[in-house]
Amino acid sequence: MTVATTEARPVTAALRAAVRPRRPHRRGPSRPSPLIIGFVLIPLLVEAVSVFWPAIQGFYISLTHWNGVNPPTFAGLANYRQMAGDPVFRKALEDTALWLVLFGGLSAAGGLGAALFLQRERRGIAIYRAALFLPVVFSLTATALMWQTLYQPNGVLNGVLSAVGLGGWQHAWLANPSTALYAQIVPALWREIGYVMVLYLAGLKGIDPALYEAAKVDGASAWQQFRNVTLPQLRSVNAVVVSVIIIDSLRSFDVVWSLTQGGPYNSSQLLSTYMYQTAFVNTDFGYGCALAVAIFVLAFGVIVSYLVRAFKESD
């Protein structure tokens, strides 16, 4: 008995060791493969070379006086102090704010209205969608030249006004300081509404139809369905649309420069056109870069403040 007991102990110990779960071997954090590192670093390098470094250089040039030929001389904040007392800059800032309100508001309303009208699948609906989106494909310069012919004193617009008995409204639309800016908003809207329509169409396609069915069962009218179902579901799309409109408004250049170059008498001067005129026409690159920095700060501040407010409301 003593021998059997002695022999059983090592067998039992061996079974316990075999059944006992093994603890996983602790290893250090796994290193990413060189391919993943390449996919991350190469775009970052391209972005740094093509975006960040020119932006840093532009900010440095805004602190100098430079005509593009002679070496730049450091001026500190002199260009920004000049900006504070520049009446043309204040006029360009006011026109840019007016452009942002009118162009942005009408683009969002027109794009949303077109998307609501064209969201249902009907026969031939694709033709109307393509017709509204077609101006987006055109070059802004070509669009401006086309509208310039319409705005001529003997152009189509004045001819239509004369044909419908409104000959008293005929005048040189682009040469009149009171109408030049508003006349240039129209071709910009003609192009922007189609783009905003596509964004809203994508958002409307993502709304669950069951929400509208439930609203109809509750007796909601079409306006109540739009206010309580459509608008809340388009909140994320609205953030994208507002960001796009603000960026497009602040960088609107092609249409204005092709039609009036900010004239007449700076009546349609925007920050973008004034920046270009200062830097590349007057060869004052230091002040032009300071204007570019002001545009960037304005766009960044408006977009970030809106997105922060939108995300707080969604939470």
Question: What does it look like?
Answer:
With 315 residues, the chain is mainly alpha-helical. Mean pLDDT is 83; it is low at 1-9. The protein has one domain: Orthogonal Bundle (MetI-like fold), CATH 1.10.3720. Helix 5 packs across helix 8. It is globular. Helices cover 72% and strands 1% of the residues.
Record the strand order, biggest sheet: 1-2
Uncertain runs: 1-9
Q: What is the end-to-end distance?
A: 76 Å
The number of distinct β-strands equals 2
Identify the overall geometry: globular
Major sheet summary line: 2 strands, antiparallel
The CATH level-2 architecture is identified as Orthogonal Bundle
Structural class: mainly alpha
Let me know the average pLDDT: 83
**Strand percentage:** under 5%
- Following the backbone from N to C, one meets helices and strands in this order, namely HHEEHHHHHHHHHHHH
What's the CATH topology name?
Answer: MetI-like fold
CATH superfamily: MetI-like
Into how many domains do the coordinates divide? Answer: 1
Distinct helical segment count: 14
Subcellular location: Cell membrane
Main location: membrane
InterPro entries: ABC_transporter_permease, MetI-like, MetI-like_sf
Family: Belongs to the binding-protein-dependent transport system permease family.
Structure characteristics:
315 residues, mainly alpha, MetI-like fold, two-stranded antiparallel sheet, 2 strands, globular, disordered N terminus
